[in-house]
């Protein structure tokens, strides 16, 4: 592979990961907190998907993309439920009660969760080391969440925000795997665009019905614009192009930086402090992801010419 293309691919991949890493703090900025709510999680979910859907229509028309076939609609529908609706709604409610840095530790499980779902849905086999890594990573996240719970009270139990974030990870993993199933035939960029367009009959009227009646600060509107234009749409273009130019195996490694970039972004955007315990747990979870990927028997799912389905899930939309 041309070294110039590899370098461009790595930079584009890093750009995509950086865009996705800011999703968590931007979502919290858009929704506010339980004590000082701004835009509702429902409106953020529907509004961001509607904005991305409008941009997707322009892209599909400009590129004269074909319509999905009958066999492609079902996987696209599941991807829509998981990525355009389920994931943003769950993180929106979760971030009302937990910090973006806290959520970043849990979201670090997404690559392994996607591989697990792919192994189950696509009947792909993985070595024992992979499954052990997945279990250890999940145990670390649960341990971190329980540790945080003890700081807020005497009870040792998962907070509601932790449960919602775990649900968001599963939702995204399901959406990515089913989106990946049609990527080889439809094209990676087209999959994301069709997911957003398919959601429009729900997201457009839903955004209108959930439009906020109270005054909302300007920063929350800017944050909504970010997650709609960049997290839900433009970030995938940089990510996919980077994978195509630099190679999936090499470029996909930059996703290991995502939880740390989320933690760092939360400092200026939300005023969160740099907690060494949070960073330590994030390092441990990322290490299990790195080791687990080494034990995977093959990329999940197989790579496509235009972009790798393996990496549909990596970035947090």
Automatic annotation (TrEMBL):
Lineage: Bacteria, Pseudomonadati, Pseudomonadota, Betaproteobacteria, Burkholderiales
Topology of the protein relative to the lipid bilayer: Multi-pass membrane protein
Domain EamA: 8-141, 160-291
Residues making up the signal peptide according to the UniProt record: none
Annotated compartments: Membrane
Annotated transmembrane regions: 42-63, 75-96, 102-121, 128-148, 160-179, 191-209, 221-240
InterPro entries: AA-Vitamin_Transporters, EamA_dom, EmrE-like
Family per record: Belongs to the EamA transporter family.
Alphabetized UniProt keyword annotations: Membrane, Transmembrane, Transmembrane helix
The protein's name in its UniProt record: DMT family transporter
Pfam families: EamA
PANTHER family: EAMA DOMAIN-CONTAINING PROTEIN, INNER MEMBRANE TRANSPORTER
Disordered: annotated segments: 297-317
Keyword rRNA-binding: no
